[in-house]
Write a structure and sequence with these properties.
α6 packs antiparallel against α7. The protein starts with 29 loop residues before the first helix and ends in a 5-residue tail after the last helix. It has 3 domains: 131 residues, Acyl-CoA dehydrogenase/oxidase, N-terminal domain (Butyryl-Coa Dehydrogenase, subunit A, domain 1, Orthogonal Bundle); 98 residues, Butyryl-CoA Dehydrogenase, subunit A, domain 2 (Beta Barrel), CATH 2.40.110.10; 146 residues, Up-down Bundle (Butyryl-CoA Dehydrogenase, subunit A, domain 3), CATH 1.20.140.10. The chain has 10 helices and 9 strands. The strands form 3 sheets. Strands 2-3-7-6 form a 4-stranded antiparallel β-sheet, with helices on one face. It has a 3-stranded mixed β-sheet with strand order 1-4-5, covered by helices on one side. By secondary structure, the protein is of the alpha+beta class. Bound molecules: 3-thiaglutaryl-CoA (TGC) and flavin-adenine dinucleotide. Flavin-adenine dinucleotide binds next to β1 and β3. The site of flavin-adenine dinucleotide has 19 residues, from β1 and β3.
């Protein structure tokens, strides 16, 4: 009879990394680790020292665009056109490290890379690619993505923005709401209904009839620009229309790219909160002992590490599927729902563990918590992703 293989236990004296309990790092290639570590250094040295001030003063730190471009982060997973051509897992790790800094900065990166550069790369003409992609990769041109309208973002197919042919031009009328990067964008990718289906228009900021006022007084994503877009008889040439798609598949396929990055990004926000709570509860004495020596605090910290670990495995698996061309949109929905919910719950609990100090801008948890209230709403709310999964499981759309 064959003898069972003995289970070799790892050395229990080895200290596990609290932010990577399952040693996901060991699954990364040396290039992926190098990318992650260089972005982590950028966040430690250039983002964390300024991000609290930027959030408090409701200011997008535009001084970070050039260093992000120099690191090759903008459109990093696209091939050609001065883009870095990294794999999907490396893109995810970049999102993770940037969002460890702030969700607003990751939003900037997601919109520029996945919602503007990706569709130009996938659906644009050669002239559109040449005009916009290298400039966007260098951070010299900024993009925004106009899909949502005020009557309801969960159902973008109900959009009212309309474009009509007029000679060799198109004339666009309508408005968009809650558009990241809107007021700083040189090029707005506006999705509009036409007689030929939903099409994407590259609207330039100085085109007559176009305006992009910033939405102020936000309590969330304060270090990010969010805007309305108004289009009043905006005339664009045929060369400004993306030729490669004319249905809702256009904008919805862009969301796959951005949502994938978000599943990784929010892990960074959760890690930042857990790191802060571990340090705080170890130093805070209550009833004669550190908070971290009590059972209930340890149980809460353990629960956070459990949820971060499972989210890491989910995103790592999505990366493998993406890099082998097998990633299904419903798998992204499963992870967007799970991981953002995980991060928001952890940020709220860490805020609570810091007590009164947790409401101060001195600490990171409340900023991440407030930011994650947007992240759980944009790119499909929990309800949207649950219903996408429900449709997959039952074959019936309940939208
Ligand atoms: P439905 O009838 O199911 O499909 C219409 C067409 O689209 C295709 N399709 C997809 N294609 C690629 N990827 C996907 N994920 C797709 N989902 C659907 C589908 O095959 C069909 O194609 P065709 O060629 O046959 O016409 O669409 P629906 O109108 O019933 O909508 C479905 C629903 C509710 C899931 C969708 O509308 C949805 O996802 N709603 C949520 C909207 C949303 O997430 N908006 C995000 C806006 S951007 C943003 O928030 C940026 S935040 C900044 C940051 O990212 O950091
Ligand atoms: P609604 O769709 O009105 O939803 C309200 C509530 O109803 C939610 O809880 C939702 O889950 C629930 N609900 C909806 N339908 C159902 C249903 N069938 N069953 C049960 N519950 C349901 N959009 C862009 O196009 N580009 C951007 O760059 C962009 N950036 C954003 C940045 C920020 C900071 C924010 C907050 C939003 C941004 N958005 C952007 C818009 C975002 O995608 C929408 O806010 C989101 O899709 C939700 O739409 P809504 O706000 O209209 O909420």
């Amino acid at each position: 009879m064959a003898q069972p293989t003995p289970i070799r236990n790892a050395d229990t004296a080895v200290q596990l990394d609290p932010l990577d309990m399952l040693d996901v790092t060991s699954q990364l290639t040396s290039e992926q680790r190098m990318v992650r570590d260089s972005v982590a250094r950028f966040v430690d040295e250039q983002v964390l020292p300024i991000i609290r001030e930027a959030f408090e003063s409701h200011r997008f730190p535009s001084e970070l665009i050039a260093p992000m471009a120099e690191l090759g982060l903008l459109g990093c997973y696209l091939e050609g056109y001065d883009c870095a051509g990294l794999d999907g897992t490396a893109y995810g790790l970049i999102c993770q490290e940037i969002e460890r800094g702030d969700s607003g900065l990751r939003s900037f990166l997601s919109v520029q890379s996945s919602l503007v550069m990706w569709p130009i790369h996938a659906y644009g003409s050669e002239a559109q690619k040449q005009r916009w992609l290298p400039a966007m990769a260098r951070g010299e041109a900024i993009g925004c993505f106009g899909l949502t309208e005020s009557q309801g973002g969960s159902d973008p197919g109900n959009m009212k923005t309309w474009a009509k042919r007029d000679g060799s031009d198109w004339v666009i009328n309508g408005s968009k709401m809650w558009i990241s990067n809107g007021s700083i964008a040189d090029c707005a990718l506006v999705w509009a209904k036409t007689d030929e289906g939903v099409r994407g228009f590259l609207v330039e900021r100085d085109m007559p009839g176009f305006a992009a006022p910033e939405i102020e007084r936000k309590f969330s994503l304060r270090a990010s620009v969010t805007s309305a877009l108004y289009l009043d008889n905006v005339r664009v040439p045929e060369t400004s229309v993306l030729p490669g798609v004319s249905s809702m598949r256009g904008p919805l396929s862009c969301l796959n790219q951005a949502r994938y990055g978000i599943t990784w990004g929010v892990i960074g926000a959760a890690q930042a909160c857990l790191a802060e709570a571990l340090e705080y509860t170890a130093g805070r004495e209550m009833f004669g002992r550190p908070l971290s020596h009590t059972q209930s605090v340890q149980m809460r910290l353990a629960d956070m590490a459990r949820r971060i670990s499972t989210a890491q495995l989910l995103s790592l698996r999505l990366g493998q599927l993406k890099d082998t061309g097998r990633l299904h949109p419903t798998q992204i929905s499963l992870a967007k729902w799970n991981n953002v919910r995980m991060a928001l719950d952890i940020a709220r609990d860490c805020r609570d563990l810091l007590g009164g100090a947790g409401i101060s801008a001195e600490h990171h948890a409340i900023r991440h918590m407030l930011n994650l209230e947007s992240v759980i709403t944009y790119e499909g709310t929990d309800a949207v992703h649950q219903l996408i999964m429900g449709k997959e499981l039952t074959g019936v759309s309940a939208f």
